[in-house]
Amino acid sequence: MTERIEGHGGELALAALRAYGVREMFTLSGGHVFPLYDAAHKAGFPLYDVRHEQSAVFAAEAVAKLQRRPGLAVLTAGPGVTNGISGLTSAYFNASPVLVLGGRAPQFRWGSGSLQEMDHLPLVAPVTKHAETVFSTDDIPRAVTAALTAALTPHRGPVFLDLPLEAVFSVADAELPTLPGIAPVEADPGEVAKAAGLIAGATRPVIIAGSDVYAGDAVDALRAAAEALQVPVFTNGMGRGALPPEHPLAFAKARRVALKGADVVVVVGTPLDFRLSFGDFGDARVVHIVDAPSQRAGHVEPAAAPAGDLRLILTALADHPGDRVDHADWVAELRVAEDAAKARDAEEMAAETDPIRPARIYGELRKVLARDAVTIGDGGDFVSYAGRYLEPAQPGTWLDPGPYGCLGTGMGYAMGARVSYPDRQICVLMGDGAAGFSLMDVESLVRQKLPVVIVVGNNGIWGLEKHPMRAMYGYDVAADLQPELRYDQVVTALGGAGETVAKAGDLGPALRRAFDAGVPYLVNVLTDPTDAYPRSSNLA
Ligand SMILES: Cc1ncc(C[n+]2csc(CCOP(=O)(O)OP(=O)(O)O)c2C)c(N)n1
Ligand SMILES: [Mg+2]
User: Fold this and answer.
1) For residue 211, what pLDDT is reported?
2) What torsion do the CA atoms of 250, 153, 311, 204 make, to the nearest 10 degrees?
3) pLDDT at residue number 538
4) Cα-atom radius of gyration of the chain, to the nearest Å?
């Protein structure tokens, strides 16, 4: 039996949102969206507000990424929506099911020059899976349900609805649609069998698993496939931690050796993009396993490319009935390389340099981080080091900006993570440059009692740009920041707390104070500005 509900546009929207598992709203105030606040307020529905709309969208994205359910940002008409576009675009690149509900100038006098009258759709359409203006109040529940269904259907992604003023303020009686249910899409069995045969027949196979493995709840199936076929596993994005670091098939540091030596590279749930040398692994054959046909790479011809529900595909690989080549020597060879790299890293993470190098910060951080801690990277070199030295122990605990590489996710992601996990450690790793984009939202975190730890790698420069520019031109411009700036005092002024650390030996106690503080706490670590992350391609 379908349910009918009566209320203003905000109430109708909220009813549909709740039915689909949305549990909170992130927003920044604007009159165009007041009815959505009214509905939330009356229903006791959690509402978190921020100081810049991009933080609202990033917070919604963090909820979506971590909890694998829709995240909601409500943005006021015009500038509210345009300020959210980098967040929407990040969600699009990351396949995160985010819904942005926008206000919109009234339709009845469209063209007369109302405040903030603009058509958002052409701006957001290229970075959303679905974008629609809902012109009539009683159509809102249908539109919300359709938008969320699109967001949650693999390949997932953000969606956008805007509600003209009269549509959201008016009252109507509407039908609350039943949830359609999203059936898993089965990949072509022939293609899956081909992939299984290639992996089983390889002598030196490697799996690289990315975010969609976590988003598609296929972590257990990944592990089963890796174990059944005895294939070493590397991960990126939300896939990190899919196999715990102590698992015999879990690898992180031997990637170069692995990709150089591999005869079959299996990439699961992540695109063959710049992070994976565009899918070019020399002579190795490529198996690309994706969650929807749209995700097959146009620039690579894989030997097999099953497209469909990742859990089903990986389970089929695990159940592969045919013979398989023994990979024990290959796994052992990689383990030697992994252990050697680990030993080198351990030395760097313990180094007693003055000034401090980023590696040491991560060495100290590893001693205080719990296995279920959520770590968030927002910055340049400092975050590349985080990726190298931190080893997430559980899937769904590592938030990087993803392939869009947008600086400024920090405080928004932190808010979404804290709201998702009230009792876990939440730790943001920030470049000093990145800090400029979102640090004001510490005020939002303080006011709404959402404590997080922020560790700033303060090298006084846009490091990831300065070093390459010098290498390229012999000079650099627009790459300096104020050296030794007291970002901790900014946080203190906003109601949080913090301290500056200049000596390696002081890091450990400072981090422990930070996690015990119970308020947003910034550890401002003065780091070596001459230290550059070693990378082959420097364009970011
Ligand atoms: C919104 C945005 N603007 C600019 C860039 C280009 N960019 C990439 S890394 C980087 C430098 C980051 O500096 P910082 O946060 O201080 O980290 P560091 O490299 O110094 O460790 C810049 C400017 C970007 N990725 N995103
Ligand atoms: Mg910097």
Assistant:
1) 97
2) -50
3) 39
4) 24
Question: CB of 101 within 8 A of CB of 33?
Answer: yes
Distance from Cα 465 to the centre of ligand 1, integer Å: 7
Residue with tokens 């470049």: 431
> Which H or E element spans position 113?
none
- Asked if residue 3 lies in contact with residue 142, where contact means CB atoms within 8 angstroms, the answer is no
Least distant ligand from the CA of 407: 1
Residue 520 CA to residue 498 CA, distance in Å, equals 8
DSSP secondary structure, 373-428, as one string: -EEEEESSHHHHHHHHH---SSTT-EE---TT--TT-HHHHHHHHHHH-TTS-EEE
Helix (H, G, I), strand (E, B) or coil at 102: strand
**Is the alpha carbon torsion for 384, 222, 290, 276 positive or negative?**
positive
- pLDDT score at 540: 45
Give residue 161 CA to ligand 1 midpoint distance, Å. Answer: 31
User: Residue with structure tokens 């303080």?
Assistant: 446
Q: Check if the beta carbon of residue 69 is closer than 8 Å to that of residue 63.
A: yes
Query: Closest by alpha carbon to 379, among 293, 321, 465, 253?
Result: 465
Query: Which-ligand-closest: CA of 533?
Result: 1
Confidence at residue 145, expressed as pLDDT on a 0 to 100 scale: 98
pLDDT given at position 536 = 64
Predicted pLDDT of residue 535: 77
Separation between Cα atoms, residue 97 and residue 321, nearest integer Å: 36
Q: Which ligand is nearest to the CA of 532?
A: 1
User: Which structure tokens are listed for 439?
Assistant: 């640090």
Give the pLDDT confidence score for residue 3 in this predicted structure: 87
**Residues lining ligand 1, Cβ inside 6 A:** 379-382, 405-408, 431-434, 457, 459, 461-465, 540
Handedness of CA 454, 408, 361, 525 (dihedral sign): negative
Q: What's the pLDDT score for residue 22?
A: 98
By three-state DSSP, how is residue 497 classified?
A: strand
Beta-ladder partners of 356: 527
User: Which tokens sit at 390?
Assistant: 């931190």
At a CB cut-off of 8 Å and minimum separation 6, what does 530 contact? none
Rounded alpha-carbon distances, angstroms, from residue 331 to 206, 229, 261, 327, 370: 9, 12, 11, 6, 28
User: CA 169 to CA 174: how far, in whole Å?
Assistant: 14
**Cα separation, 22 vs 339, whole angstroms:** 44
Residue of the CA atom closest to atom 7 of ligand 1: 540
In ligand 1, the atom with minimum distance to the C-alpha of 437 is 1
* pLDDT < 50 regions, the chain: 538-540
Contact predicate 481/432, CB 8 Å: yes
